[in-house]
Amino acid sequence: MSQFRSKVLDIGCFANIRNIRDHTKRKVFAANEPERQALRYIIRNTTLPQRVRAQAQLQLAQMHCYTRFTQIKNRCIMGGKGRGILSDFRMGRYQFRMNALAGNLPGVKKASW
Amino acid sequence: MAVPRSRVLDLLKVQCRIFNTTYNPQALRMGTRILHERLKGDAVAEYYPPRIGTIKQLRLLYPDYEVRDEKEDEWLEHMQIARSRGKAPPKKKRTAAESKKFTKKR
Description:
The complex is a heterodimer of chains A (113) and B (106).
Chain A: H1 17-44, H2 50-61, E1 85-86, E2 91-92, H3 93-101
Antiparallel strand pairs in A: 1-2
Helix pairs in contact in A: 1-2
Chain B: H1 5-19, H2 32-36, H3 41-45, H4 55-61, H5 70-84
């Protein structure tokens, strides 16, 4: 949803629409996380009146889908791929191999024994 | 030797005070688990590296220096040439009255 997207490009890595969208989702999630957690607390707290908890449930369900953590997906920062990502390096497996062999990743060495 | 329940509860109370947790001997579902969760939003939002070193940022950082933007210069030059030839884009219409789109030509 483009209402959340920043008007200027604000990521310095490989930028295609999927990466930009995922970045937008991350920012929206970070901004709304306290509110979501507060609502979740109210819902899980059985000592609160049932009415309040039901209202909190409704409110949480009505929040925008971009505020949900499950919307976020790790993507390759070098090539934008969405599958086969090594999350420690934030790269797809092929980009990881290329960068590791080129020596761009400190501490990564090809195994040989 | 069996320890009386009241002593155990006292111990629990002290434990809760020391470790800053909620005293809840009936084990009611109070949702404190959620309050104890760390907020991960900042770490999640930092996944993609920020865009740095753009000309706009440089100009903001060093207002005393003149930062040249070759692309912008080229564009301005092109616009000047186009304007001299009468091929520049028309001025933006600000009001509906100015706009000819909805006025019938006849």
